[in-house]
Amino acid sequence: MTFPFPAVLFDLDGTLVDSASDIAEAVNRMLAELGLPRVPEARILGWIGEGAHQLITSALRDAGSTLDADAVYARFMVHYEACLLLDPRLYDGVVDTLQALRDRGVRMAVCTNKPSRFVPPLLAAMGIDGYFEGVVGGDSLAWRKPDPRPLLHLAAQLDVEPARCLMVGDSETDFAAARAAGMPVVLVSYGYPRSFDLHAAGALAVIDRFGELIGLE
Ligand SMILES: O=C(O)COP(=O)(O)O
Ligand SMILES: [Mg+2]
């Protein structure tokens, strides 16, 4: 069995790992510390995908706070770290599929907007750190998704032409970054809810289960 792409770049939150409840708890601990009301997880999910700074900005704005995200960023990072491994879960089929891709000689990397220092410990806790030859976080470079450069950086690191790298993600941010990088994209439908219409985007495929990746032709 062969796989049509020599390299695959994966988004992390909402694609490989369901970290929603942990991120939501970190946001709520920050809000509580500021004397602001907790927010339901479902609402917070719509704010994830563009990095921690944007997440805090959305939370503060939603709460009607005039505080700037910079003012609470360091405190949020303390909560983020404390909540990182509360209850993260791999989506169904992730390990088997990563192993099947590795067996087919596919090279893999992670491109996430999550703060970079939290990425290796999360991948290790999930037992999937050994599959990736490269990891770029939201603050690893001067750019983050939807800028294409984090993806192009990983393609260069893997020494695979961008057009032959497949990007797999759950958000508009992933889609836009891949498009701008000239990479084909597969979107997963189980990621974090948002207004982006996955099916209308023009992805190579929209998959409901991670394991469907292996059937791509
Ligand atoms: O932490 C975020 O903002 C999103 O992370 P992701 O890019 O892995 O979805
Ligand atoms: Mg994501």
From TrEMBL:
The EC number(s) this enzyme carries: 3.1.3.18
Keywords noted in UniProt: Carbohydrate metabolism, Hydrolase, Magnesium, Metal-binding
Family matches, as NCBIfam families: HAD-SF-IA-v1, HAD-SF-IA-v3, PGP_bact, PRK13222.1-2
GO biological process, one term: carbohydrate metabolic process
Catalytic activity entry: 2-phosphoglycolate + H2O = glycolate + phosphate
Name of the protein: Phosphoglycolate phosphatase
Cofactors that this protein relies on: Mg(2+)
Organism from which the protein derives: Luteimonas yindakuii
CDD domains (UniProt xref): HAD_PGPase (cd16417)
The keyword Iron appears for this protein: no
EC category: hydrolase
Cited function: Specifically catalyzes the dephosphorylation of 2-phosphoglycolate. Is involved in the dissimilation of the intracellular 2-phosphoglycolate formed during the DNA repair of 3'-phosphoglycolate ends, a major class of DNA lesions induced by oxidative stress.
GO cellular component: cytosol
Binding positions (Mg(2+)): 11, 13, 170
Family listed: Belongs to the HAD-like hydrolase superfamily. CbbY/CbbZ/Gph/YieH family.
Residues the record marks as active site: 11 (nucleophile)
Record carries keyword DNA repair: no
Single annotated GO MF: phosphoglycolate phosphatase activity
Pathway, per record: Organic acid metabolism; glycolate biosynthesis; glycolate from 2-phosphoglycolate: step 1/1
